[in-house]
Design goal:
about 120 residues; mainly alpha; about 70% helix; elongated
Length: about 120
């Protein structure tokens, strides 16, 4: 998904910008590092946000690939408070609140970028 987003965003950069840099004598590396990368900052932020939330919420892959409880992720640890015969709701809800805090802090730090990324394609022109 990240490759698709970045590719489509970079394809959307006007060709005139790259052509004017080529006319000025810039090489491809210089064009990429000084023109395209700064213009692609919004998509880099969007990819970072999506990757972070996707990794944070990963449950099945960790459950299948990792056998040691020492290396399991936080969502797997929260689910361990729920058993087949009994569930300790007090501990599970406390773990849910503690597990929610890092994502809440992440959202509060990047809320402007998230809002900008969501509303970018809403209006044409």
């Amino acid at each position: 998904m990240a490759v698709y987003l970045a590719t489509e965003y970079i394809k959307g950069i006007p060709d005139e910008v790259v052509e004017s840099a080529r006319i000025d004598g810039a090489k491809y590396i210089r064009i990429f590092s000084l023109i395209i990368l700064p213009m692609a900052a919004p998509v880099a932020t969007t990819v970072a946000i999506l990757t972070t939330t996707g990794t944070w919420n990963e449950f099945m892959l960790i459950n299948v690939l990792i056998s040691s409880d020492r290396y399991k992720s936080l969502p797997h640890g929260i689910s361990s408070f729920s058993g087949s015969l009994a569930t300790d709701y007090g501990k599970q809800f406390a773990a849910l609140v503690i597990g929610m805090l890092p994502m809440l802090i992440f959202y509060l730090v990047f809320r402007k970028q998230i809002t900008k990324g969501v509303s970018t394609g809403a209006v044409k022109g």
